[in-house]
Automatic annotation (TrEMBL):
This is Phosphoglycerate dehydrogenase. It is an enzyme of class 1 (oxidoreductase). Residues 27-312 form the D-isomer specific 2-hydroxyacid dehydrogenase catalytic domain. CDD domains: PGDH_like_1. Residues 111-285 form the D-isomer specific 2-hydroxyacid dehydrogenase NAD-binding domain. One of its GO terms (molecular function) is NAD binding. Its EC number is 1.1.1.95. It comes from Pseudomonas fulva (strain 12-X). Keywords: NAD, Oxidoreductase. Belongs to the D-isomer specific 2-hydroxyacid dehydrogenase family.
Length: 323
């Protein structure tokens, strides 16, 4: 069996403990980012299975039409907008999902909050350049952490905030707000109050049709000049251009970002990378060894189970009638 794994940017998948479970199969790994359909079709031409690294490669009708040998797509984590499940079904390609974990993304989010608030990155850059104490940051204690989306990551973040003596203010669905209150936090009385009151706002929403471009310029304009916006979820939650425009107008004064509309972001002159109030990381939220063992361990187990003829849970069970 030929298994193809694209987008192994860091060239680390072979180093995972779970990779040994594929020892009896032919495995091809690619370490670059490619969106050219012709190149992808050539790489995937004789693949029996693809193991996708989260949402890095887009699989659509145009590509699937050129992959008649493909039988399975094993997704690390959950399926998202990068994968056209209906097109997979039309082409007789089964799709299997894995699990995710809130631990690494929550920890990365907190690291960004601490780094941005204490202004560590510019202070460290200056020190390595021979300068000493060039700026002054802010402590977290007493600042209000606003969380939009009180799911597994948001809840974990709220617990971190409690340890740092930060009041937590939650916005989102009615169920999210009720859960936050039950946990001893505050629910914002309105969307406007949420943006206007919080000192730090962190977005933790799934990207879907209802949440795409949900945060607009009017929301950001309500934030304090001293406020920090953190986005480790999806760049598309914010309307195109709205964040950079808001930062240039001074509300909010700061942002910490792990996600971007175009990834990989390889342009060192990108305005977000050049903005003095913005701290950026290259989508590291889930990029952590234990998380990778979970993601790829599930994905590899799903491949083995599928081709062994075991009873598998498919994201597109309709494909069974076509096989």
């Amino acid at each position: 069996m030929h298994i193809v794994i694209p987008d192994d940017y860091q060239n680390v998948i072979r180093t995972l403990d779970c990779f040994t479970t594929l020892a009896d199969h032919r495995v091809s790994l690619y370490h670059d980012a490619v969106d050219d359909v012709q190149v992808l079709a050539k790489r995937f031409a004789d693949a029996d299975a693809l193991v996708l690294t989260r949402e890095r490669t887009r699989i659509d009708e145009a590509l699937l039409a050129r992959l008649p040998n493909l039988k399975l797509i094993s997704q690390t984590g959950k399926v998202s907008n990068h994968l056209d499940v209906e097109a997979c079904t039309r082409h007789g390609v089964a799709v299997m999902e894995g699990r995710g974990s809130p631990i690494a993304p929550a920890e990365l989010t907190w690291a960004l909050i601490m780094n941005a608030r204490r202004q560590l990155f510019p202070a460290m850059q200056a020190m390595y350049a021979g300068q000493w104490q060039v700026n002054m940051g802010q402590r977290l204690a007493g600042q209000t952490l606003g969380i939009w989306g009180y799911g597994k990551i948001g809840q974990r973040l709220a617990r971190y905030a409690q340890a740092f003596e930060m009041p937590v203010l939650v916005w989102g669905s009615e169920a999210s707000r009720q859960a936050a209150v039950a946990d001893g936090h505050q629910a914002a009385p309105s969307r406007e109050a949420f943006f206007a009151s919080a000192d730090v706002i962190s977005l933790h929403l799934r990207l879907a049709a209802a949440t795409r471009h949900l945060v607009i310029a009017a929301d950001l304009a309500l934030m304090k000049p001293s406020a920090l916006l953190v986005n480790t979820s999806r760049a598309e939650l914010i309307a195109p251009g709205a964040l950079l425009e808001a930062l240039n107008k001074g509300r909010p004064g700061f942002a910490a970002l792990d996600v971007f509309e175009q990834e990989p972001l390889n342009d060192p002159d990108h305005p977000l990378l050049r903005h003095p109030g913005v701290l950026c990381t290259p989508h590291l939220g889930y990029v952590e060894r234990e998380g990778y063992e979970l993601y790829f361990g599930d994905a590899f187990a799903n491949v083995r189970a599928f081709f062994a003829g075991e009873d598998c849970v498919l994201a597109n069970p309709q494909v069974r009638t076509q096989r």
